[in-house]
Amino acid sequence: MTLDPITLEVVLNRIREIAGNMEHALFHSGYSSILRESQDGSAGLADAQGNVVLVSGGLQYHALPCSQAIRSVIERYPTGRLREGDSFVVNDPYKAGNPHVPDMAAVTPVFYRGNIVAFGVSIAHKVDLGGLVPGSSGSAAREIFHDGLRLPAVRYWTGDGVNEEVEAIIRTNSRVPDVVIGDLRGQVGCTRLAIEGIGRLADEYGIDTVLESMSRLLSGTAKQLENELERWPDGTTEAEGFLDHDGADRSRPIRIHVHVVKTGRKLCIDFTGSDPQTRGPVNVNSATVQAVSLTAILAAVDPEIPMNSGLLRCVEFVLPEGRVVNPRFPATVNLYFPTAHLVYNCVLAALGKLNPARAVAPSGLGSGAIAIGYPRSRSGKPAVQYEILNTSLGGGAGHDGVAAVMAMNHYTPSTPVEILESEYPIRVRRFDIVPDSAGAGQWRGGIGVVREYEMLEDCLVTVRGSNHRHAAWGLAGGASPLPARAALNPGTVRAEELDILESRELKKGDVLQLQQSGGAGYGSPGARSRALVREDVDNGYVSADAAHRVYRL
C-alpha cells in the first residue's frame, strides 16, 4: 500500500511508545532487585509471523530469542488454537531461544477484529527456578536438567485470569515463589499492554497502515545496514578469544573464533573455528549468539540502526551444531553470558579491521553474576540475591572506555548498595575503582571496579565469573587490562582465591571480594596525551609509578 512519510513516522513513533510503556510497566512492577533495579529484561512487539519489530529496554540482544519464543508458541498452539485474552510463558532454551532457564519469555497474541495482527513479547530474568543452587545457575551443572524448571510454551493467562495449575507448578519449583510469581505476573501484564496499544492505533489509522508501518520498519532496517556495508571494502577478517575453562575441565581454555566475510551489501559470520560444546555450563544457544553478533555489527556500523529481525536479511551465520556456540541438547547453558560477551567482542574486533573508524578494543571480560541464597532475609523469609557483574568498556579511536558499564548492552543499572543492604543480610564494605586496572593505550580502557560483601547471616554463594586467566586484548598497540579475580576473606589468615565458577557455604562474618576487569586499551600508550595521563593520576585511575613506567610521564 502507499504510505506517506509523515504518517509512517507518526505511526512508528506510536509503536515505539507502546513498547516503551511495556518496558516501563515491566521494570516498575518488578518484585526482585534483578528486575526492578538491574533491569534484566526487555519488552517489545512482533508481527504476526513472529518477526520482532522493536525491543525496548537495555538488553537488545533479546530480540532474536523473543522471535524464537513466539514461534515456539505458534508451533505448539497453531493459529486456530490461540484465543483472545491468552498469554503464554516458555523458558526452555532449546525451544524458545531464551539465553538460559531463568530468562522466562512471556508471549501475548494481539487480536484485532478476530485476527492475530501482532504479538507482545518479553524476556525477563527470574531470580530462582529451582536447579542445583539458589539462583538456579549452578557451577556444577553438567546438563540442562540441572539448570532448573523448564517449561514448554504453556497457556498462563486467559480471558478468565491466571492459569492456577501452571502457576502452582512454578511456585513449587522456586525457593522464593512469591518474588518469582510477582515478577512473572508483571511481565505477562506488560505484554498485554500491546493489545490495547495496537488496538487504539489500528482504530485511529487503520490496521493496514499499522501493519505496513511495521513491515516498513523491518525492511528499512535491512536497507540501512546494507547501505552502510556497501561503503566498506570487501574482504575477510577473523578474531578469537578464550574463556578460562568450562567449570568441568579446569585445565583447558575454551576458544571462540569468528571468521567474517564481507561481500557487497552482505556479511557472513562463521563460528566453525570455535571449540566443541562443553560439559560445563558455558555453552550458549544459537539464537543468543546471532543476537549478540548483530549488536556488535550495529556497534561497528551505526548504533542508530534499530535492533530487529530485519537485520537477518543481510547477515548470514554459520553455526555448526555441537559447538560451544550452538550446543546439542541436553547441554547446560546456564553460564551463557561470559561466552556471549566474548562472542560480541570477537565479532566487534573482527569488524573493526573492516571499519577502523569505529574500531573498539574489547571490554573487560570478567562478566557474569553472583547469586546468594539466604535462609532468612531482612523480611524474615528466604531470599535469593542475584546481581549482574558489570565490567568496563574498551578504548576506541578517539575516546577512553567507560567504566562500570553493562558491556555488550552499554547501559549501567546495577543494584544500588542501599537496596542490597535494606533487603538482604549483607554489608557492602567497599565499592571502589581499582587503580591501574584498565588496559593502557593512547585511549585507555575503562577502569575496573571492586566490591566487598560482608555476610551478616550464613548463606550459600555461587560466583559465576570469567576470565581470571585470559584478559581482554588491546587493539592497535593497546594493552590488556588486569584480569578479573574473586577472593574470600582477603587480607586475613583465611584468605582464599576463588576460581571463575564456585559455590560455597559462607558463615556470618565472611567477606567476598569481587574485582571486575577494566577494558582493553586502544593505540600505543606512548601516544597518549600527557595532560590525559596527569588527569588519570589525579583521579586515581593510574598510579604515579604506572604513569612513569607505562606512559613515560
Give an overview in words:
The model has no long low-confidence stretch (mean pLDDT 96). This protein is α+β, with helices and mostly antiparallel strands and 553 residues long. It folds into 2 domains: 5-223, no CATH class; 360-553, no CATH class. The chain has 12 helices and 20 strands. The chain is 30% helix and 23% strand. The chain has helices at 5-28, 33-36, 63-76, 93-96, 164-172, 177-205, 207-230, 286-301, 336-352, 417-423, 530-539, 544-549; strands at 41-47, 52-56, 87-90, 103-112, 115-125, 154-158, 161-162, 235-243, 254-263, 266-270, 315-318, 368-374, 383-389, 426-434, 448-455, 459-464, 485-488, 496-498, 501-506, 511-516. Helix 1 crosses helix 7 (207-230) and helix 3 (63-76) runs antiparallel to helix 8. It has a 7-stranded antiparallel sheet with strand order 2-1-5-4-3-6-7, sandwiched between helices. The N and C termini lie far apart (65 Å).
Q: What count of domains describes the coordinates?
A: 2
Helix content estimate: 25-40%
Output the strand order for the largest sheet. 2-1-5-4-3-6-7
List the uncertain runs: none
Based on CA atoms alone, the radius of gyration comes out at 23 Å
- Report the principal-axis shape: globular
Number of helices: 12
Report the sheet-strand fraction: 15-25%
Total number of beta strands: 20
Major sheet characteristics: 7 strands, antiparallel
Secondary-structure-derived class: alpha+beta
Question: How far do the termini sit from each other?
Answer: 65 Å
Provide the residue-averaged pLDDT. 96
